[in-house]
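Q: How would the structure tokens look for this protein?
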Amino acid sequence: NLQLQALQAQINPHFLGNSINAIQQFFYPPNPEKASEYVGILTDLLRQTMAFSEHHFIAFRDELAYDREYLQLIELRYGAHFHFNITGAEQIPDGTPFPSMLLQPLLENATKHGLSPDSRSEVSLHFELQHDVLFCRIEDNGVGINHSKAQPKSIEHESKGIEILNKKIDTLNKLYHLDIRLNIRDRSEMPERGRGTLALLQYKPSRVPENQLHDVGKHTSEP
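A: Here is the predicted structure in token form.
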């Protein structure tokens, strides 16, 4: 439990730092309306981040609302140059236990390192429940993880974030035997030979003890 708390404490500053840096773009040239909207969404996300950090598991409806709001924040930042879609969420029961703050580092990588250099950036988040396994699939159309790792400025940040995430996954598996698996692949190495990165996360929600599920009250999952 202490190790999970320590790992969570390392994830939060990455998210906060990147989000605050983005505010600068609304000052040159000045755009007070968008700056105000951005700060409003960010403030709400920070409240949710603090609430989620206190628990190992949250309800799926809260995770979905958080993911949607986070992607809306990125959309506000990049405007017409960024688009996202979320699919499959309707088949997941609202109260399904979801590991807290497990998708955020993956979404952050997809919306920072996974942006397309020459066209509109596309990020998709797909959920699927097969038998006892919940699958979360995040795809982008950026340069791909292999190319990103080759850039000196992105190596330390991205590798550190994934390292923290993998440690958190290992700790959750030891505590709750969730069989969480994370597979990150460059889409150019896949059969369809696409461009970008695919992150596939899966786990068994039925193994989460009932007394570990916390409802933090963020129920607005519609856009």
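Strands lie at 57-59, 82-87, 97-99, 121-130, 133-140, 181-186, 197-203, 213-214.

The chain is about 45% helix and 20% strand.

Upvote if useful.
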